[in-house]
TrEMBL record:
Pathway: Carbohydrate metabolism; erythritol degradation; Carbohydrate degradation; glycolysis; D-glyceraldehyde 3-phosphate from glycerone phosphate: step 1/1; Carbohydrate biosynthesis; gluconeogenesis. GO terms for molecular function: isomerase activity. Keywords: Cytoplasm, Gluconeogenesis, Glycolysis, Isomerase. This is Triosephosphate isomerase. CDD domains: TIM. The gene is tpiA. It comes from Silvimonas amylolytica. Transmembrane segments: none annotated. Pfam families: TIM (PF00121).
Length: 289
């Protein structure tokens, strides 16, 4: 019996536990990484605002110096603002860092935590990533936590072991149900070739199953995104997968036409996973769910 199948037979939640479980949200998150400019902010936000719908989240993650401008331009639209990183502390003598509370102050609702590029280049560990996610949750920011295996791990059949370990650290957080997970196989990032749909679906199903061992309702209701060479051509196929709620998009998010096409694909598949109104809840009310 699979992990996921076993999970649905565990003890039912009490009513207070059920009230804390968020709802799956259809999302497209554009991570600009260290690219872009003030001009791109001023081009991209109005373009995205012209098509963004309240039931499907459209989230932009500019480099930190542009967060204020994107938050300002996105105010009173259905475009949301997200940081690419955040500190694990709320304040302190930490030159060069910024806190989740500061992001909330700007009007940001999300922060990416534990992207593989930060794990690799800045030596972020699962423990550090969990601490950052916790700091976000305490400040009312929804962390989008990246997990995923390397090419060698993929080739040697270790994907589930890697995910089990990465998710295990997150499960120690008291409010783990409020996390958004982005499955990003490292080997598919920036290559132009996304993971095959069966590979993506298997990983997402495993991720839901891992959470379902602790709470079967949460396993089915948490938002799980895919990232790794998502583009206008493959988005429809990825969004059609039953356990994929959306995408964390890198290079294609720097082109407004491509991002609009990806978002349009998400809108077309919106009814299959996301609940109407869920994006509104994700933007502001997950802390109380
Ligand atoms: O955060 C985004 C991911 O790393 C995917 O990047 P990519 O779409 O350029 O492969």
């Amino acid at each position: 019996m699979s992990l996921f199948a076993r999970a649905v037979h565990t003890t039912p939640l009490t009513a207070p536990d059920q009230a804390r479980v968020p709802t799956r949200v259809r999302m497209v998150v554009g991570n600009w990484k260290m690219h872009g400019s003030l001009a791109l902010c001023r081009e991209m936000v109005p373009a995205m605002a012209s098509i963004a719908q309240p039931d499907t989240a459209l989230v932009l993650c500019p480099p930190a110096p542009y967060l204020g401008e994107v938050a300002r331009l996105a105010a009173n639209t259905d475009v949301q603002c997200c940081a690419q990183n955040v500190a694990d502390a709320h304040s302190g003598a930490l030159t060069g860092e910024w806190s989740a509370g500061m992001l909330a102050d700007l009007g940001c609702r999300y922060a990416i935590v534990g992207h593989s590029e930060r794990r690799r280049h800045y030596h972020e560990t699962d423990h550090m990533i969990a601490a950052k996610a916790q700091a976000c949750l305490e400040a009312g920011i929804t962390p989008i936590v990246c997990v995923g295996e390397s090419w060698v791990q993929h080739q040697t059949g270790q994907t589930e072991v890697v995910l089990q370990h990465q998710l295990g650290t997150l499960l120690a957080l008291p409010d783990w149900r409020r996390l958004i997970i982005a499955y990003e196989p490292v080997w598919a990032i920036g290559t132009g070739v996304a993971a095959q749909p069966d590979t993506v679906e298997a990983a997402h199903r495993y991720i839901r199953g891992r959470f379902a061992t602790r709470d079967p309702i949460a396993g089915n209701s948490m938002t799980v995104l895919y990232g790794g060479s998502v583009n206008a051509e493959n988005a429809m196929q990825l969004f059609a997968l039953p356990d994929v709620d959306g995408a964390l998009v890198g290079s294609a998010s720097l082109q407004s036409d491509a991002l609009m096409q990806i978002y349009t694909a998400a809108l077309r598949h919106g009814a299959s996973a996301a609940t109407p109104g869920a994006a509104h809840r994700a933007r502001g009310d997950q802390a109380t769910e």
